[in-house]
Predict the structure.
Amino acid sequence: MNFMKTGIEGVVIIEPKLFNDARGYFFESFSQREFDEAVRRVRFVQDNESRSSRGVVRGLHFQKPPFAQSKLVRVISGAVLDVAVDIRRGSPTFGRHVAVELSGENHRQVFIPRGFAHGFSVLTESVVFQYKCDNYYSPESEGAIAWDDPDLGIDWKIAPSDVILSEKDRCHSRLRDAEWLFDYNVNLY
């Protein structure tokens, strides 16, 4: 696997080594040993999968401690623009984001550490999206910031008039008005 650092410390893009032949392809999608050595020691405890249609934006979501989550995300079929936003007050990259196209064709994955909000927009007719989490989902710990916060400057690659949101994702506050954020000086692991 090829592990690529991004402009924000801790957010890592992972490209597998793909082996193609007349039968199709094979790749190792996860190795705990390689991940621990190249990214960080994380114990994933829950795998999730979603299916969404073109224009859907999910996010920007996070979970507060003690249920904060790291995520390792990838696309099985279709394509998304995947976004991780640093929401750790005091961080040198606070409010900045990393955006990466993930697809069933490029097989890329993104690791999003604790202390980040996460979301994605669906760029194809449909997408099957998978993610590993290092903590269990807790509805009481849910947090989110507005997907369209102009201060974040995220280009979701979809016209705002074409975006499809859940009712919950329609009413999140902007980052500057968020009631709860992470503290950069607190170890989240």
About this structure: Residues 32-38 form the longest helix (7 residues). The chain has a mean pLDDT of 97.
